[in-house]
Amino acid sequence: xxxxxxxxxxxxxxxxxxxxxxxxxxxxxxxxxxxxxxxxxxxxxxxxxxxxxxxxxxxxxxxxxxxxxxxxxxxxxxxxxxxxxxxxxxxxxxxxxxxxxxxxxxxxxxxxxxxxxxxxxxxxxxxxxxxxxxxxxxxxxxxxxxxxxxxxxxxxxxxxxxxxxxxxxxxxxxxxxxxxxxxxxxxxxxxxxxxxxxxxxxxxxxxxxxxxxxxxxxxxxxxxxxxxxxxxxxxxxxxxxxxxxxxxxxxxxxxxxxxxxxxxxxxxxxxxxxxxxxxxxxxxxxxxxxxxxxxxxxxxxxxxxxxxxxxxxxxxxxxxxxxxxxxxxxxxxxxxxxxxxxxxxxxxxxxxxxxxxxxxxxxxxxxxxxxxxxxxxxxxxxxxxxxxxxxxxxxxxxxxxxxxxxxxxxxxxxxxxxxxxxxxxxxxxxxxxxxxxxxxxxxxxxxxxxxxxxxxxxxxxxxxxxxxxxxxxxxxxxxxxxxxxxxxxxxxxxxxxxxxxxxxxxxxxxxxxxxxxxxxxxxxxxxxxxxxxxxxxxxxxxxxxxxxxxxxxxxxxxxxxxxxxxxxxxxxxxxxxxxxxxxxxxxxxxxxxxxxxxxxxxxxxxxxxxxxxxxxxxxxxxxxxxxxxxxxxxxxxxxxxxxxxxxxxxxxxxxxxxxxxxxxxxxxxxxxxxxxxxxxxxxxxxxxxxxxxxxxxxxxxxxxxxxxxxxxxxxxxxxxxxxxxxxxxxxxxxxxxxxxxxxxxxxxxxxxxxxxxxxxxxxxxxxxxxxxxxxxxxxxxxxxxxxxxxxxxxxxxxxxxxxxxxxxxxxxxxxxxxxxxxxxxxxxxxxxxxxxxxxxxxxxxxxx
Amino acid sequence: xxxxxxxxxxxxxxxxxxxxxxxxxxxxxxxxxxxxxxxxxxxxxxxxxxxxxxxxxxxxxxxxxxxxxxxxxxxxxxxxxxxxxxxxxxxxxxxxxxxxxxxxxxxxxxxxxxxxxxxxxxxxxxxxxxxxxxxxxxxxxxxxxxxxxxxxxxxxxxxxxxxxxxxxxxxxxxxxxxxxxxxxxxxxxxxxxxxxxxxxxxxxxxxxxxxxxxxxxxxxxxxxxxxxxxxxxxxxxxxxxxxxxxxxxxxxxxxxxxxxxxxxxxxxxxxxxxxxxxxxxxxxxxxxxxxxxxxxxxxxxxxxxxxxxxxxxxxxxxxxxxxxxxxxxxxxxxxxxxxxxxxxxxxxxxxxxxxxxxxxxxxxxxxxxxxxxxxxxxxxxxxxxxxxxxxxxxxxxxxxxxxxxxxxxxxxxxxxxxxxxxxxxxxxxxxxxxxxxxxxxxxxxxxxxxxxxxxxxxxxxxxxxxxxxxxxxxxxxxxxxxxxxxxxxxxxxxxxxxxxxxxxxxxxxxxxxxxxxxxxxxxxxxxx
Lengths: 848, 528
Known about the structure:
Chain A is α/β, with parallel strands linked by helices and 848 residues long. In chain A, helix 2 (46-54) packs across helix 3 (63-79) and helix 22 (606-636) runs antiparallel to helix 23 (642-663). Chain B has 2 domains: 2-246, c-terminal autoproteolytic domain of nucleoporin nup98 (2-Layer Sandwich); 279-478, 3-Layer(aba) Sandwich (Rossmann fold), CATH 3.40.50.
């Protein structure tokens, strides 16, 4: 190293998401360079991978396997969007070719950093290392020769940046700076007004800008316009549109992504031969009247457009033709092609036009994708994507989306400026048209993000069971926006003769810091969730179904009634009551989702009642008279059977009590005569989840609903409010329960008045605790459960899993409702609903 | 849990000999502990003319449930026993039979040390069982006991007197009378026939079950007209063990959630089909028709959607023209059985590479199903509720889009020709609908129209001039080139009126295709 060499401090820009390939002979200092400039986890070295597969970092015979491992790891990192540095000699073009293919596969930039260090230096360094001391000099010599040969070809090979560091000095003093990608504007938070395809409709553009509040291209509140491309062609004034948009972009009041039409016009401006079809001829003609200088500006403007932008912290992606999530923020020809042209299936339709691949149907990304390109009559959201091309040039309208408000603003076209090749269809791409959900949304092991309890995991076997039941038995998923969570019982009671008693429930809530609770009568029926729309039209609009005006389904999503007409009859009565109670207007909705209990139990559980409960009662009723008679006869003969006789009498009484207990759940119904429906919570209405509405307000709404039912179908839910810290109030609560269950009632559910409540430590408290009546529990724990020795054994029950399950399912249910209220795509709602059902198949003591 | 045995006597053959025969003293009440509770023997009456022995089994229901937990000696936990609400403490079930053999073991063997001469002599016997679970009802009870020399009275017990409309329970009050049988024979009859009538899932199997049956049935079972039924029911417990092993506890729990029986949910596979392959001629015809259609279409990679127990997959595997066969079913139980039928775990790697079984659902789109030559939907669509059919239609014809789709479904018109099928009934409990030929054609034509397929129909089975064939088949073939797209909204109809001739798919002029030439690619390229 000569002292006289001038120090040259090279600054190497390296894109934040890229595949960096270090190129240099063995001993050129690649590992040192990588260590100095990159995070240790960003660097994968071939030596390390050799060690992984062969226990020897210098075992050249393991190279093939080592590079498999290296490519695999690099692939995983790039797929996850992490910059990756490959530390291998990479002096041969074959080796580099594989890496360039890898970068392309994951749509990141391949960058080469060449360490061109003299052969003697490399040899010296290798000699100093014990593990490489016997590396033949000819190998290093070959490396250096190959490197020199490669230098000229690197850009042609596909590297999008090539940094060559010559000599030890330059290597030592280079610095690496991380550059953002051009499409990464996540730091801009807007607010934005995203404007659809304009196609030279200058007047409509000016009208829309005015409607959005722009004054001469500037918004007084500092909003930014974002154009989705296709500014030109077909329409009357492409130059005017370009002038306006370019001025806004230059002054920083707008962003613009290119459309396929600009792209083609840009090629024309560069002198390439393009067909002047699809309205390009009009643009060329209009631009002919402009100055050469303006055409030059347009050329540069188009040339400088970036294919798509990621905005607002990654929540928003804008591009011309739509973009799958895996391409967001990526940089490759493929990404650009997708952003400009979209994807086609390779087929053609009856107009000879390529069939578009319905990418939005598959879209499951977190970012909203706003795009244009495909003319639709109405801009509608689908899976968090929206197409804003509403065919202004074809006589439709010009549409803008306000972000983050998600409001649509549009102006009608002044006239049909250009005849479409084929008519606009009524549906948006993949609109509400009964498309099924995708299996990947529900299948296998999953974790569902919930706002109230974080990630809730679903195991594969539980998802498999849920898939079976939902696929074979459930109502249409569009009419299944919720499934009710399971509920934990109160802590096992120590009160003599009782397995469950409200005392423990009140104590538990007091401990959790809940001062006020509501005790709600537990109805003696089956759980039913009811979705009722104001009319068939509302059902079509909101839920996309043609025909039914709602649904009535069980805890596993099965239709409650086999006959759809019975369902409609129930919905009709509810609808009338809701109208009478003024709930539609008050809640600003044309549909309601209700949690209810449907009675009698025998209506749905007839099979279980006859096959199990009544059968047990029948067997007991048949067996005991004979047994008791035989025992009495033996006793009168002087045989000592008094203890046995006493026990059998007790058992006979227990069995009779059991029969009495289940009989309360049975009565005969004829059509809807005798059927009762007790709503106890309004779960959701348009734009609103009501799961956090305090229960007193809930019950006030419900009471009005019940009051306005003249048919006798709806039944009130009795309730009592209890102060958990007030002994008097707690006693009243206990008495109420004793009185109710003493008359054969099923029991009650205690809920925190505030519905969704956390402890001081931030832990979610149980949304409800059930206290089941002593007699009712006979049909759960068997006729003889109250015998002291049985009770003693049954008290050993374990509630923790049930409690945890109840909270997880509650969080999932609330999540489904929140997603429904936010108008999120069906798959997002269904994901949470499906998870509730899957969790219901987890192993837990079924008697809890 | 209760039965009485009464005999009558004369001064020279006193009724109280029953005490000797049973080895239980008529003056005492005795208790014996058995595995399921305490058995008591006592005599309500005992004199020369008449003597009655009562056997009463006190079953501990709570212990039964706790026993059911975990995988103890009894094998897998038994869902039915895991109920606290259980008829075992009351009904004269297999538990009572077990108690009988334990408490009266020497009597059953015909051994009486004190009075050996008594055992071989028949005596008047009257047996009462007030609550006998009897699957098959009083008629079967009669058929089982009468040939053995019993006078049988079996009276059904009503399910609930408050709800007469519920009808009879599965229990009968049974009385048996005979003058010609020995006590030992009577006990052996009960020992075998109580569990046979009970026929519940929850019986305990030990390896020597066959020996036990042979021993207890000695002298009477071989000539019994219902021998086959008795033997199969007695040993059915073995099959129920296999059934239990496959029981999907997740589905059991979901059924419990809904207060319904697991059989309502876990019914994708017919029970009897587990035991043996009984291809009805129609199923064979169907398979022939399908394989012929697949062969005609030149398909090599085939989906069997709703493959059930894998019969078709198995048939296709035997034909090497099929290079990839994928069986898809929503029922995990069905797939388990299919896997076993195909012996997947013992298949050679080369064979195994040709076949795959997947859990999937036809009301969801599924990327794994794209790109196949053909899909078969054999007797599948009728298992979906009609409102869910559009979802299946889109998943198969819109999303998976195989070149050929073969659909078979029952022809409801033909049902009048099934002698065993009551009028108006569907052929299978899970059929949500059955179509006439016209209905099927209307559906198939509309599907074909919506998704760009041509469709042809063919009968399967004898084509009755009046009502048509028992099974109807439609073969859909995707029309080449000009793709019509779905009326359900569909993939391409909104395809732009814009510049479309240069999309990456068609790749003309290479201007935009693939990985991008230097001029077209991102700005970053120039930044280097």
